[in-house]
Amino acid sequence: MQYHLENDKQYKGLTVKKGIISPPITNPYFQIKKKRLQYTSSEYTEQILKGNITILSQAVTLIESGKSEHQKIAQEIVEKCLPYSGSSIRIGITGVPGAGKSTSIDAFGIHLVHDRNKKLAVLAIDPSSERSKGSILGDKTRMEEISRETNVFIRPSPSAGSLGGVARKTRETIILCEAAGFDTIFVETVGVGQSETAVHSMVDFFLLIQVAGTGDELQGIKRGIMEMADGVVVNKADGNNIEKANLAAAQYRNALHLFPLPLSGWIPKVMTYSGHYKTGITEIWDTIYRYITFTKASGYFNFKRNEQAKYWMYESINEQLKSHFYQSANVGKELAIKEQQVLNSKISSFMAAKQILDLYFNK
Ligand code: GDP
């Protein structure tokens, strides 16, 4: 037995017994494994094409990851899924916070899945979500009814990065969802910033949700969004709000008449409905499908998709050039120095930019 001072004869009554050696708190047979990619890109693709939602989710996580090994395999999956994509109807949904986007998406989703036998993927673009720590949009808890449906896939906004980066990830996610058999894709965004333009550039139909009685129906930024809209729907047309909603709808109709006829040749429709009481929903979807039929017949549908593909090619080039520029070591150091010089009026912003670019291009 080990020596213990307390066992000395001088300390009467004090003894230390042998006791039990306590076992380690962790299981010694348990090894912490480095997380590895589980599958090859072909295996991911095969499962996605079979409609395996767990694997689809994992592949979307790879798209969203900043790690280069994840990006590499994600790009391979997107490439492999591409031939199986494109056959869905992509709908952009926007509206200011409180307009009723989540309530409406819930109501639209239930209508599409139950009455029209559709498979729906709900995605979102919310570049602010990084700042607000956690996504506001595309959150399952906000869409209670459809989150219980097996034919609905909900994915919150990718949170990291610039709007361009977030939008690219959502666009790639659309491709995977289509390959997995989702025939209707919603892309939700908040109608307060630049993200509508990004959403507009990846959808076939852009739906603007408005509410009556906010007093700012035709003002400010929403005018720009109104011009992008293929349909304007006034929500909360229920109870004693019906009259106000009808009045707002009439105002929107008048306002839309002042805009030039869109390239699609389709005059945007204005409708009232209630997401909460699920009234007017069928009419909205009848109209959206009429638009799809109309633009497919005129060739505009394909034209727009091709234009969007071209747009994303350039977006992707721009984004990668930008990140290569900002991540290069010598630029990083010089940027901080030049920024300070510009702030102290020691050098013009144009000269500073030129010098940094010269450095980058090794001139
Ligand atoms: P979001 O921020 O655009 O997603 O809006 P929400 O869907 O969260 O709705 C904001 C608020 O408006 C909530 O309190 C909803 O209950 C309410 N709301 C949404 N749709 C309707 C509707 O059709 N009628 C009424 N009366 N209230 C609604």
From TrEMBL:
InterPro entries registered for this protein in UniProt: GTPase_ArgK, P-loop_NTPase
Coiled coil (UniProt feature): none
Transmembrane recorded as keyword: no
UniProt keyword terms in alphabetical order: Kinase, Transferase
Protein's UniProt keywords contain ATP-binding: no
Database matches in Pfam families: MeaB (PF03308)
GO CC annotations on file: cytoplasm
A single GO molecular function term of this UniProt record: kinase activity
Recorded family membership: Belongs to the SIMIBI class G3E GTPase family. ArgK/MeaB subfamily.
PANTHER family recorded: METHYLMALONIC ACIDURIA TYPE A PROTEIN, MITOCHONDRIAL, METHYLMALONYL-COA MUTASE
Protein's recorded name: LAO/AO transport system kinase
